[in-house]
Every structure is written in C-alpha cells, then in structure tokens.
Amino acid sequence: MSEQRGDRTDRGDQGGEVSAAWEALVATARRTVADGLVVGTSGNVSVRVGDIVLVTPSGVPYDRLTPDDVTGVDLDGHQVLGTLVPTSELPLHLAVYEATDATAVVHTHAVHATAVSTLVEELPLVHYMAAALGGPVRVAPYATYGSAELAANALRALDGRTGCLLRNHGTLTHGTGLDQAYDRTAQLEWMCRLWLTASSVPHLTPTLLTHDQLTEVTEKLRGYGQQG
After folding, report:
1. Residue 192: what are its φ and ψ, rounded to 5°?
2. How far apart (Å, rounded) are the C-alpha atoms in residues 211 and 195?
3. What is the pLDDT of residues 115-142, one digit of tens each?
4. What stretches of 130-203 adopt beta strand conformation (E)?
5. CA separation for the pair 75, 51 (Å, rounded)
6. pTM reported for the whole predicted model
7. Which amino acids are annotated catalytic?
8. How many helices (H) and strands (E) does the chain have?
9. Which of 9, 100, 167, 182 could form a disulfide with 142 if both were Cys (CB 3.0 to 4.6 A apart)?
C-alpha cells in the first residue's frame, strides 16, 4: 500500500480493518464471476468500514486486484483511499448506506434475474425464500446506470426489503456483511431461475404462495440457524 494510502488509513485507526475488508471484498467480487453472476467487469461490490466505503474500481478485472489497489470513498463519495476510479455505480451503493444500516452491497448482472426484470413488476412468490429478502421482490424502474435516478428508483424498490431487481439491468442486495449480501444475491438469482423454469412449461401455470403463507415463513425464519 502506498504511503499516502497508509497515512489516510492510519489516521482513522482502521488500517488493519480496512485491509481485511478489502481482501474480503475482492474475494466476493471474484466469487460473482466464478458463480456466473457477472461477466467481465460488470457488477460491483462494496463494504462499509466506519465512515469509509470500500468499492470495486471501475473497469478493472477482479482477478487483477491486489492489496495495493484498495479503493475507498467517504459517505459523501469523495475518494479517500487509492488512485483507481471507483465503480460507476457509486451513487447506488452510497444511497443504500445512507438509507439503511447495511454494511455491504452486492450488485450483479445475473442473467435469470435480469431476464425476470424485463417481464414483471415484482418477482412472483414462487418460493418461500422471498421472506429472507423481506417479502416479494420488486423491480425498480429502468434508469441509466450510475445515475441519481437509478439510485432513487432502487431505494423505493428496496423499501422494507434487502434486495430488488433493476429493470433491464440486474440485481441489488445488501446485508450486515459481505457473506450475507452475497448469499441474498445468489438466492435472488436462484428464485428468478426457478420462476422462469416453472413458467416455461406449456399449458401449466406455477402455483404461488399467498402473503399469509409468506408471513408465516418470515416468523419462522427469525429462529433459523444456530442460536447463541
């Protein structure tokens, strides 16, 4: 890491935390490619460390990123770490951090989710894991990538949710950490693939869950996993 980057990081007493967070961010970004959620340098990932938001840089293949490439901005979008230009979707990420208590955001161009975004206003309730995203997944109206309009549209679609679809664009999820944000993205892509598969069978229509059924699952998921 360059001296300038180190000085800025140490000044905030976050040097080790930032380095670890950057390593985790790069691993998550590479995972989006390995799992087929993005192609090339499409999509982007961010993680918040205090008042710094680490983000993937614009147009750089994830397999080329090194510890010296750490790229970070403050909550107003001013670059405070690194020299690489941050992702063009920075307004989208910053809007999520301003409106929620998220510490990580994942945006992809996952093919099944993007296909669904062109077909419906809301992902049909084909599976109960919609409850893990807060309820029926909405589709944000189309807007040019990187624009304030896209960020505003996404926030409306995310109201009460931890994930949404972006029309003719892709997915957006957030969480309390990179693993959770990524898992929500993967789950959303899987549900979209499931609905497309079921709805493609000729002469048959997929059965959908009711909102009461989804509410019941939402309550049950509160106790899911290992406790304590």
Report:
1. -65, -40
2. 17
3. 999 999 999 999 999 999 999 999 999 9
4. 139-140, 163-166, 170-175
5. 6
6. 0.91
7. 89
8. 7, 8
9. 167
